[in-house]
Amino acid sequence: MILDFVRRVGESFSPEAYLMLTRIEGSLWTLADFVIVFYLLKIADLLRVYVGRRRHRLSYFVLVATVPFALILPVAPSGAAFFRLELMVTIPHFLLILYVCLGDIQIAAKAFHLRQARGDI
């Protein structure tokens, strides 16, 4: 019953309508990815400064380098072009998340230890 409903809804979309909705959804998810990665870098920078390490620089450059591709997403000429552009944006974002989480885990532990030693926690 639910499967039939989903099929009927899916069959009512034209390829153009589907591509338009995909552009909207992809653009919103890309914006969310950008914001999440930006604030993750900001948090990592706070931890790095707290323990006396340099802030991220290259990571911000990689994040900003994805912006032109994200701006083209809403006007991608085809589904294949949209998919390629989306990959050019999301792969660097997810690699940055992985890099920051794995690369700064010891810095986060050190910051936590310093705060605990100072009695801030």
Q: What share of residues are in beta strands?
A: under 5%
Main sheet properties: none
Average pLDDT score: 89
Gyration radius (Cα, Å) is 20 Å
Polypeptide structure, described:
The mean pLDDT is 89. This protein has 121 residues and is mainly alpha-helical. The chain has helices spanning 2-11, 15-50, 58-65, 67-72, 79-103, 105-118. Helix 2 (15-50) runs parallel beside helix 5 (79-103). The chain has one domain (2-118). The chain contains six helices and no strands. The longest helix is centred in the first third of the chain and has 36 residues, at 15-50.
Brief sketch in words of this structure:
The chain is built from six helices and no strands.
What are the SSEs and their pairings?
Blueprint: H1 2-11, H2 15-50, H3 58-65, H4 67-72, H5 79-103, H6 105-118
Helix pairs in contact: 2-5
Key words describing this protein structure:
single chain, 121 residues, mainly alpha, 6 helices, 0% strand
